[in-house]
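Notebook entry, structure prediction.
Reason for the run: the old model in the group folder had no record of what sequence produced it. Starting over properly, with the input documented here first.
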Amino acid sequence: MRAIIQRVSEARVTIAGRVAGEIASGLVILLGIAAEDTSADGEWLAQKIAKLRIFPDDAGQMNRSVHEIAGGVLVISQFTLFASTRKGTRPSFNEAGRPEIARPLYEHFLAQMEDAMGRPVARGEFGAEMQVALVNDGPVTIAIDSRTRE
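New structure, fully documented this time:
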């Protein structure tokens, strides 16, 4: 799994003109699922993100996690994180998990994230055409890949 994590002061996802999920201060997680990913990838990733210390403490240092600040989390499925542009100019998405594999892993990740946070997380809709609006705070944007465990 690949995740792009953005620290935000606010964010929302809209589907067909309806706000499907929104948060104030917290994290937007763009989540890509590869064909070979497993539930263990989602479990590791949810724990890593919940504990990631990228929010400022009283001294302004990045020492607090989204869990510690009781921040919101908005998760958006995004197969395009597995785009390959090696050949030509049209991306290939062959590495991305097919919906029958990716959807259950996305749902499992959501459950793991909620468990790690101890509260519900906002979300988009798997496979839907979505508009994501956010205010990146910092800006802080971090990429994490469960294959490399970094």
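Summary: Helices lie at 39-51, 99-117.
The old model has been moved to the deprecated folder.
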